Amino acid sequence: MLINNWNKPSDEKTLHIGFDDTDSVNGRCTTHLSYLISNMLIRKFQVEFVDFPLLIRLNPNVPLKTRGNGAVCLRIRGRNYEKIKEEITYIIENYSELENGANPGLVFYEGNDIGKDLTSFSESAMDTILSKQLAIKIASKNHVQFSIFGKGYGIVGALAATGCLLDSDHTFETIAYRSKENIGTNRKTDDFKVRKLSEQSYPYTYNNFDIKNNRILITPRGPDPVFCGIRGEDPFITTLFLKNLCIEEELDGYMIRRRIRRLYDIQIKSRNEFTSTQREQWN
């Protein structure tokens, strides 16, 4: 499992790619864009991902957020970084919701160490409203390349995600994406199956079904490309949860992310405590 493998000794520099604010209330999704970019990087450049893609939930009280105020960071090693940067910049500029109010920011940082300026900025972004001007100042000081589009507010989240080491408590989310022809249509799920899988996998997954109000929590309500997201302690288990939903709709694919644990107080157990009987229920 690749977690924080990017800072291990290596002759190759890690390329850290952060971006945010590519969507709008009318559609699109920053995590979906990271899914498309990741597919492109693997197919076209045969890069090595040295960590799970990071989904970093920032200050939830920021008034400019679209929905969950989540920024993305990808950490890779490979060749031809300049060409990779050109491709990603083109995608961000041409596939973001600029016409509907998105204000993307994109950063690139090459190195196997993340400096204190970047980690401190990231920590502050979790509970403070930071300015675009401060983000630009810190990026420039630390040799971080950046691009801004529209009003460029997304550079704050992009830099914060890049500076987030996520080397303490974290969880995982397996997010499934819809095929283009299904985006905007109703999502069809088996509520009974979601509840059953939630009960079987607890406490290794969480916040996927609201028992008190008898409703599922894995699907968004808007017209974005996400079909559902399964949250939990272990990427193996969250992905099995998704596969055992037996979704009838043809999906485009899925991606596993590491994410900050926020606002949840749940019991944590090691993966080794997942008993053989429980494992058999997933096969």
Explain the overall architecture:
- The protein has 283 residues and is α+β, with helices and mostly antiparallel strands.
- The protein has 2 domains: 158 residues, 2-Layer Sandwich (Alpha-Beta Plaits), CATH 3.30.70; 95 residues, Glycinamide Ribonucleotide Synthetase, Chain A, domain 4 (Alpha-Beta Complex).
- The protein has 8 helices and 11 strands.
- The strands form 2 sheets. Strands 1, 2, 3, 4, 5, 6, 7, 10 and 11 form a 9-stranded mixed β-sheet that branches. Strands 8-9 form a two-stranded antiparallel ribbon.
- A hairpin with a 4-residue loop joins strand 8 and strand 9.
- The longest helix has 16 residues.
- It is globular and about 55 Å long.
- The two termini are 21 Å apart.
- The C terminus is likely disordered.
How many helices does DSSP assign? Answer: 8
Shape: globular
- Binned strand content: 15-25%
- What is the H/E order? EHEEEHEHHEHEHEEEHEH
Structural class: alpha+beta
Unreliable runs, pLDDT <50, ≥5 residues?
263-283
Number of domains: 2
CATH topology of the largest domain: Alpha-Beta Plaits
> What is the gyration radius calculated from CA atoms?
19 Å
Percentage of residues in helical conformation: 25-40%
Mean pLDDT: 85
Examine the secondary-structure arrangement and name the CATH architecture of the largest domain. Answer: 2-Layer Sandwich
